[in-house]
Amino acid sequence: MSATIDLDDNRDIEAKTGSFDVKKGLAEMLVGGVIMDVVDAKQAKIAEDAGAVAVMALERVPADIRRDGGVARMSDPHLIEEIQETVTIPVMAKVRIGHFAEAQVLEVLRVDFIDESEVLTPADEEYHIDKWGFSVPFVCGATNLGEALRRVSEGAAMIRSKGEAGTGNVVEAVRHLRAIGRDIRAISQASSAELYGWAKDLRVPVDLVRQVRELRKLPVPLFCAGGIATPSDAALVMQLGAEAVFVGSGIFKTDNPESRAIAIVEATAHFRDPHIVAKVSRGLGKAMAGESIDSLDVKLASRGW
Amino acid sequence: MAPKIGILALQGDWARHGERLRELGVNSVEVTDPKDLIDIDGLIIPGGESTTISRLIVSCGLEDPLSKMLRNDMPVLGTCAGLILLASKVLDGRDDQLKFGVIDAVVKRNGFGRQVDSFEEMLEIETVGPDLFPGVFIRAPFVDGIGPNTQVLATTATGVPVVLRQGSALGCAFHPELTGDLRIHQLFLSIVKSANNTVLPFSKS
Asked: Is B177 annotated in the active site?
């Protein structure tokens, strides 16, 4: 999509929307921030008041999706619009893996970011969405570097660790971040010939592997999601290389969401300063009870490939 | 002596500003606490979410020292959210968000629209040379009015002001830190240099 504007000197200047730089640009702006799951306008307001950089509008937080079972789908457009009208910060929403028609609907609703998410029930067991065709940027989950780069090759402008959503247990997010970081460090040291081996093993284009070696990071921002429940959890994943955090059930499934939301925002911004993390962790009340990964019937992180 | 530039590093794309300064051979310090302001010659407020950055400035005690230094004409570059924080009036913002008011301008948050309306445009910025400058606008603020002492250094093709200068304060509605073009950062460093030749270090004044 582009509009050409004719100037007096006959020089054509194109104002171009939907380019990859513009999509990745929004991801860059969210760095160091907290993106909070909200299920209604009231929660969205609490999130914005607490200093969230964006909200994720959805009908049920992952903990409830997990409990209720059944097919989890894109949210009702009405809910998303209500939240867009309530807050001034970016509003994200989720679509099922491979469900490009849901993504088309979210683009019409002008959401700011689309999460092609394993938290919803996958719609396609073979293909993720071809994200290059959309003006709205996409974020996708990943458990390792190959998965992350395959999503980037499909046009994702941001990657997040999958973690294990709705558990309040950070162990899987840590596993995914460490796996991604370990391979990035190895590729940074690889010879040019070895990059072909990496491309083959990771099942990704060699150009993306080259970019990883050059940048010593993913070609798009890497955020963390899945199981963050406390300010220390946020500080942990940020120190492990996440550039921002998504908090799903971890805020509104607790006694005191207002204070917890503020505390996680502060801990994410000041993740290297344990004095601040200690200060904001005091008196927050109970965190979400959480679940051990072994006891789960359904592992969401295994959705997608 | 190379200037010491502080980059407000609470939230947003502050690391990109650090990279651009490094490419110009200038070291920067990350500002997350009032003590980081000691002896800096200039400050960059990055892109990000202005409401979040505003909250974090207040909670870490940076509001008063920053206000004081900016009132004392410390050179400052604000991009996108940074421009919003430097402006005197914000439309469609939160009532409680900070306004340092060193650039006399009315800015409308996300005034170009939501993310699907974010755009790239090549800009004419005479002050930095004849070559067009790549402007990346992300949910950018829309300058809806300026005061008598505010200079407009560039506009979009449709005439919307996008680079503003008032004294030692420079504001961009777009993100020069996201592109390889270093000329806005060079312009800022020249403002820092001329300010340093005339006044004492700001933290001591």
From this structure: yes
- Measure the CA–CA gap between A274 and A53, rounded to whole angstroms: 22
For A269, the closest chain B residue by CA position comes to: B10
CB pair distance less than 8 Å for B121 and A25? no
A105 touches A77 (CB < 8 A): yes
Predicted complex ipTM? 0.94
Q: Which of B181, B142, B198, B172 is nearest to B76 (CA)?
A: B172
How far is C-alpha B110 from the chain's CA centre?
16
- Looking at residue B123, what DSSP letter applies? E
Phi-psi region of A10 (alpha: psi -120 to 50; beta: other; left: phi over 0): left
pLDDT tens, position by position, A228-253: 999 999 999 999 999 999 998 899 98
B175: annotated active-site residue: yes
| Catalytic residue selected from B19, B60, B120, B175 | B175
Phi (first) and psi of residue A199, to 5 degrees: -60, -40
The span from the CA of A223 to the CA of A239, in Å, is 12
- Strand A34-38: give its sheet, edge to edge: A222-223, A158-161, A138-142, A113-117, A91-96, A54-57, A34-38, A245-247
Q: Which residues of A make CB contacts under 8 Å with B?
A: 5, 7, 13-19, 21-23, 25-26, 28-33, 48, 51-54, 88-90, 107, 110-113, 135-137, 265-266, 269-270, 273, 276
- Catalytic sites of A, residue numbers: 94
In tens, the pLDDT along B94-121 reads: 888 999 999 999 999 999 999 999 999 9
> Which residues share a beta bridge with A141?
A160
Domain B4-196: CATH superfamily, name plus number: Class I glutamine amidotransferase (GATase) domain (3.40.50.880)
DSSP B54-116: HHHHHHTT-HHHHHHHHHTT--EEEETHHHHHHEEEEESS-TT------EEEEEETTTT-SGG
CA A179, CA B92: separation in Å to the nearest integer? Answer: 42
Cβ-based neighbour number of residue B19 at 10 Å: 12
What is the domain partition of chain B in residue ranges? Answer: 4-196
Nearest to A53 by CA among A231, A269, A288, A274: A269
Taking residues B20-46, report their average pLDDT. Answer: 96
Check the CA dihedral A182-B13-B4-B23 and report its sign.
positive
- CB within 8 Å of chain A, chain B residues 157-176: 157-158, 175
Q: Is B185 an active-site residue?
A: no
Chain-centre distance of CA B156, in angstroms?
A: 18
